[in-house]
What does this fold into?
Amino acid sequence: MKLNNFPEEIKPYIIPKAKGEMIYRCLGCDREFGIKKLLYTCPDCGQVLLIYDKNINLLKEISGETWRSIFDYRKMLTIPALKGIYRYHEFIGPVIPMDDVVYLGEGHTPVIKANTFLQEKTGLEFYFKNDGQNPSASFKDRGMASAFSYINFLVKKGFISDVLALCASTGDTSAAAALYAGYMNPNVKSAVLLPHKKVTPQQLSQPLGSGASVFEVPGVFDDCMKVVEVLSEKYNVALLNSKNAWRILGQESYSYEIAQDFEYDLKKKVIVVPIGNAGNITAVMSGFLKFFEAGIINTLPKILGVQSVHANPVYRYYLEPDVKKRKFIPMTVKLSVAQAAMIGNPVSMPRVIHLVDLYNRMSGKQNVFFIEVTEQAIMDWELLANRNGHIACTHGGESLAGLVEAKKKGVIKSDDSAVIDSTAHALKFSSFQQMYFEKRFPPEFKIKPDPKLVNLPVFIHPKDVKKVPAPGKPLTGDDFDMFVNRVSDEIATILDLKKV
It folds into this structure.
């Protein structure tokens, strides 16, 4: 739709202009820093940062009803910079000019309602938000679109040059960082650190294909992250993990999209997310808070964070009901099929603590909850979801398992409606599905395949058929007719087909 066709009263708002004053604010000492330099932690106290727009109160001068119209009309535009996460420009990166926005097709992933069978099985109405349909096949593209748009802005302004984008990853972050860095070639190069043999072959292939320098490091993600932190402290690199506050800003778009998809009515809604490095749950809370404070939504939805029993430091922290007695203790993780969540010392934990407190206070009640699930439940629910028309990754299975467990514990009510985050495409984790089907999970996963969920190919070669086709050696005549008819008969017998 062309801008000229929009109502006159909305036209001045549709194309955003770069404005605002954004700063880094330390969660430890409250010091503020400008954004002309790449920062990841406070130079004074070492605590993580959040980004604030010092003029954010100006957003409240526009009514919630007008904001809703702005976003709904922007949805009709064909301007690339506004087709992705920057549809919500004023809430994500108001200082970024439209010409600096890096858009690769990220954001606005579909929300798919579970079929009747799954709703009856869980006793709940729920939806999967398929973030695996982002360009690198995971939600990480949201944060990368923001981080690289900011880097593009700094490069064009002459504040930085010869950028090396660096990240530690369990797969998805590296794929996203390498993809966006590749798009910005030659101004940006990328390097990624992966835990050796802890990344699926599909995920490993992505940064390699995008031209990144890939380094495999002994240990787990937490070990890779420490190396990256040291590199970012000693050398001139752009750190692209969720320690980068611009990543958090981009991932807030997840909340904005859900609000818009449900016509800004979030009563009785539950948002279910896996925790991992805690950047995503941080962004989800922050996004809903911004929309709530601007009057765009009138209700803050319930937030449910899910962790595997093999990597559950956040869940353990919130087991203590007395806020004053809570103490965060990093843990040694065990192997998990939810690889991106296999993190024992989440970088964004200080942000979680800060925002959970704020979110609950703004809600006027406890509105953020944490739950743990078994590895068995993760795989079983992922496979069941995908048997019913979804493309859930293991983290989507983790989230669905968490929803079911939360309902058992009374955290979720039968009349609640949930949106589950399937953070990546199912194909990224197909090797776990294959291990399940072939019953070869190592004992430490504690996963016993359910025969009802196991599905393997059946090789059909009737014993009485001597001649079969082969590449370059087709059958003809009676031999071909016999082959086709006998194979058809065996398949019909296995499937118990009835003759017409």
Notes: The chain has a mean pLDDT of 94.
